[in-house]
Amino acid sequence: MMDLCKELKPESSCSVLDVGRSNLSSELASYYRRVVTLGFPLSDFAHERIASSAKAEPAAHIVFDLNDSGKAGIPIAEAFDLIVFAETIEHLNTPPEIALYSLGKLLKPTGFLICQTPNAVALERRYHLLLGRNPFERIRSNPLNPGHFREYTQAELSDLGKAAGLHVVRHEFVDYFPHLGPLQAIRSALRGIFPTLRSGQTVVYGKAG
């Protein structure tokens, strides 16, 4: 993700909004001039403890639930060169195009919104379906970490962007996390031949027009 951010916006003077607080937030803050994070109140989640001990701190954290985007605008009065929306859209329990629209309003005209999310039709999902198993976990009882409400396909992410007034600049399927097990070699071979079977995907949105 850091490599992609630097490719899209190599100037360290750029401003960045990172949805969620994690070690990535600190990595971004160590490179870019201004980094603001957005999300639930900071708690004792492990990834937040990592971020708090990192070498650089984001400039501020704005408490806001993106599920409320349809009720009220995001309480930020500045525009950003880059918005990082990583591993979050699948956790929304409201129409994601509403959140994308609200985030898009915070983009500068030449800015980019990076959305990283699981691939709903990855090889592992299809395998479980063939066995008659539900490939998606049940909703958790913790309201601050409820799990995935909905995962998306490439076509759906493109449609969501259009509905939010954004256009797709680029899209790629990538395996971000390791897959262990006796069938790993077969899985790797299949995902290498058919990228659409990979477990993750990243879409870069720009402002339409």
Written overview of the protein:
- Strand 2, helix 3 and strand 3 form a beta-alpha-beta unit.
- It is built from seven helices and seven strands.
- Helix 2 (23-29) packs parallel to helix 3 (46-52).
- By secondary structure, the chain is an alpha/beta fold.
- The chain has a seven-stranded mixed beta sheet with strand order 3-2-1-4-5-7-6, sandwiched between helices.
- The protein is globular and about 50 Å long.
- It is 28% helix and 24% strand.
Provide the descriptors you would attach to this structure in a database record.
Rossmann fold, 28% helix, 7-stranded mixed sheet, single chain, alpha/beta, 7 strands, 209 residues
Cα separation of the termini: 25 Å
Overall structural domain count: 1
Helix amount: 25-40%
Radius of gyration: 17 Å
Main sheet strand line-up: 3-2-1-4-5-7-6
Are there runs of 5+ residues with pLDDT below 50, and where? none
Chain-averaged pLDDT: 90
Secondary structure layout plus pairing:
Layout (H helix, E strand, L loop, with lengths): L1 H7 L6 E5 L3 H7 L4 E6 L6 H7 L7 E4 L16 E7 L9 H9 L2 E12 L4 H8 L23 H10 L2 E9 L9 H10 L6 E8 L2
Parallel strand pairs: 1-2, 1-4, 2-3, 4-5
Antiparallel strand pairs: 5-7, 6-7
